[in-house]
Amino acid sequence: MRRPSKPLLIAGIPIAGLALASYNNGFVSAWSPAPHTAPSTRRSPKSSSSVLLSAIEDELDLSTLNLTPQLEMMVNAFSSIPDEKTRHKQLLYMASKLPAVTDDVRISANKVPGCLSTVHVDCTLEPKSDDDDSTMVVNYFGDSDGLLTKGLLALLIRGLSGCTPEEIQMVDPTFIQAAKISQTLTPGRNNGFLNMLAVMKKKALDAAEKGSGAATDADDEKEEELAIVTSFEEIDGKPMYNTIMSTLITILKPTSIKLTDNSAQHAGHAGSKGWEESGESHFALAIVAEAFDGLSLVKRHQLIYMLLGETMQKIHALEIKAKSPAEV
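^ thats the sequence. predicted structure below, dont judge the formating
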């Protein structure tokens, strides 16, 4: 007797309408509807950043990313999905299952900066269990007015909730590439994802600090100790320079950063949108930040590329020297 069809599960979540698993004689086969669009003879060229991300995805080792058990499960599940369209739809499905929040969550203190959509996220610090009230874990909740962004938020909420603040701080953001989700996103949404993760890490630290009854703000003390760069002098008519500096200072909190515009040495370089818009095409970046601690050279460069998002599409070259404070 033939069993009824069951939905395919990805990270424990059914993919409704995306793929069907049919059970015939004990064997499972995946099926998805054929595309309705006619085949095209034109091939869209891959950008240099897409080729770079693909190469990096192939060499990522999950054991080095310090993932939580839930994140590791979802990374393995998403990376096993063979096409971008299905990964995209799975994120939308996760968005639809994210619990609703009340309006008191949607305040400026909980808003994530630098996202294409509006995102609010907050957390609580609670005992891990009734039997273990000495271990405190973080539980997140939030919302977004963009469905795909909401799916990314749902993934982070599920992956980080139930973990200690220390475990959350250790998570390497490059897991989004190991999961092949970055292929589904525009550079702007990749940047928004990193901002969401950065805010959630900050929320976890703040919650832990309040829970311990600390009298002073740990972030302010840390910035003073390491002399973290918090501002820079903007240059009129140089939007690429200003965007790069603002983004890296805000998210990476460097102890040192120097960005040199070498565009004049490559005047009129073909294919550079930045040159056409503002005469900016080539930069050299020297940056020191604690965020690079423990990351390989490739991962440091990759993190900067992801943070700069659409800006990287407009400039021709960015020479990078990225170090951690311990390496200076």
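Residues 61 and 178 are 8 Å apart (CA to CA).
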